[in-house]
Design goal:
about 90% helix, rod-shaped, coiled coil
Length: about 140
């Protein structure tokens, strides 16, 4: 029974450790793994009484620093992509608005041109009708 409790406590402690490293790494499992390896190398060095900065610890510290930089770069890249996507969406919106306004202006201009052409046609037709009457009077019409 005591063995079962020890196993349960060890499992809870292990899960707590995993949670701690994942939390401290901002949810990045690779960075959490490198932090754990660095801490394990440092603990091993302290237990052996070696001096700081020996090969294994230095290597693990370098790996941890690399993973930290990689995670930060990935985060910045994701932020930049999100901002670029947002800007692209806004540009598409402005482009659609401009196209809509252009179409409205084109239609309005078309209506104005048609109205002016109709007015011109009416004036020309009225002028022709008046001139027929005037010329008709000169050349033997009514």
């Amino acid at each position: 029974m005591a063995g079962r409790q020890v196993g349960t406590l060890a499992a809870v402690a292990g899960l707590g450790g995993i949670g701690y490293y994942l939390y401290s790494a901002g949810g990045d499992p690779k960075l959490a793994e490198k932090k754990l390896e660095h801490d394990a190398a440092e603990a091993t060095r302290k237990l052996r009484g070696d001096y700081p900065g020996q090969d294994k610890e230095a290597k693990k510290a370098g790996e941890e620093a690399y993973e930290t930089a990689r995670a930060k770069a990935q985060s910045l890249a994701n932020d930049a992509k999100a901002k670029a996507d947002k800007a692209d969406a806004e540009l598409a919106k402005y482009s659609a608005d401009a196209k809509k306004k252009f179409e409205e202006l084109k239609n309005e201009t078309g209506r104005e041109v048609n109205a002016a052409a109709n007015k011109f046609d009416k004036e020309v037709t009225d002028g022709i009708n008046k001139s027929k009457g005037w010329f008709g009077g000169l050349f033997g019409g009514k």
